[in-house]
């Protein structure tokens, strides 16, 4: 196999096309459907979960980035493969409880409340702490409220305090999140 520019362009094109097809197919997945029930969607450009937005600008932007990678030939191919490998590596380092919750979200349909409960359980697993039943219930209600209330800090649901407990911060009239009157 020759490592000339044209072969690199073809290799980068194939990897880029595979990533684009994968990203589009994720839009119809059970995971995306479940997470959509709590008002989030996966960004086509970054792959991160976010609120709102539209594919109308994300797809052309993603295709433009892909075109740059394709024109970079072998460098673009290496960047695409490295990005894909990083995504796999990042998922492999997640706590076991997070992997189990992600598996459930990918394989079973849930109600919005069940998705919110799983989201809170995932936050607890990531933080390595368990919220009290009262704070967990408040956190589930906060996640459910994010479906209809615009909020830039959508993931600011459970916050560890100085004593190590998890609490749901309150939001004051200025939109600032606080715990016991102190900004988070």
Unreliable parts:
none
Structural class: mainly alpha
Task: Give the proportion of residues in helices.
Answer: 55-70%
User: Judging from the principal axes of the Cα atoms, what is the shape?
Assistant: elongated
Total beta strands: 7
Order of helices and strands: HHEEHHHHHEEEEE
From the N-terminal CA to the C-terminal CA, the straight-line distance is 56 Å
Q: Main attributes?
A:
58% helix; mainly alpha; 2 domains; two-stranded antiparallel sheet; 3-stranded antiparallel β-sheet; 7 helices; 184 residues; 7 strands; 8% strand
What does this structure look like?
The chain is mainly α and 184 residues long. It has two domains: 5-92, no CATH class; 111-183, no CATH class. Helix content is 58%, strand content 8%. It is built from seven helices and seven strands, in the order ααββαααααβββββ. It has helices at residues 5-26, 30-36, 55-71, 74-92, 96-107, 112-127, 133-145, and strands at 41-42, 49-50, 159-160, 166-167, 170-171, 177-179, 182-183. Strands 5-6-7 form a three-stranded antiparallel beta sheet, with no helix packed on it. Strands 1-2 form a two-stranded antiparallel sheet. α5 (96-107) packs antiparallel against α6 (112-127). The longest helix has 22 residues, at 5-26. The radius of gyration is 20 Å and the shape is elongated. The termini are far apart. The model has no long low-confidence stretch (mean pLDDT 83).
């Amino acid at each position: 196999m020759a490592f000339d520019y044209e072969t690199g362009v073809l290799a980068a094109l194939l990897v880029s096309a595979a990533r684009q097809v994968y990203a589009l197919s994720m839009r119809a997945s059970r995971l995306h459907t479940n997470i959509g029930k709590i008002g989030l969607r996966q960004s086509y450009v970054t792959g991160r979960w976010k609120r709102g937005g539209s594919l109308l600008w994300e797809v052309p932007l993603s295709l433009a980035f892909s075109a740059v990678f394709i024109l970079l030939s072998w460098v673009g191919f290496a960047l695409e493969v490295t990005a894909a490998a990083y995504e796999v590596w990042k998922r492999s380092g997640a706590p076991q409880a997070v992997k189990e919750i992600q598996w459930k979200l990918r394989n079973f349909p849930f109600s919005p409340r069940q998705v919110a409960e799983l989201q809170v359980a995932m936050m607890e697993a990531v933080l390595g702490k368990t919220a009290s039943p009262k704070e967990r219930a408040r956190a589930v209600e906060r996640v459910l409220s994010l479906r209809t209330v615009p909020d830039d800090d959508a993931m600011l649901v459970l916050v560890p305090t100085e004593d190590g407990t998890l609490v749901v911060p309150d939001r004051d009239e200025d939109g600032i999140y606080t715990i016991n009157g102190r900004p988070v």
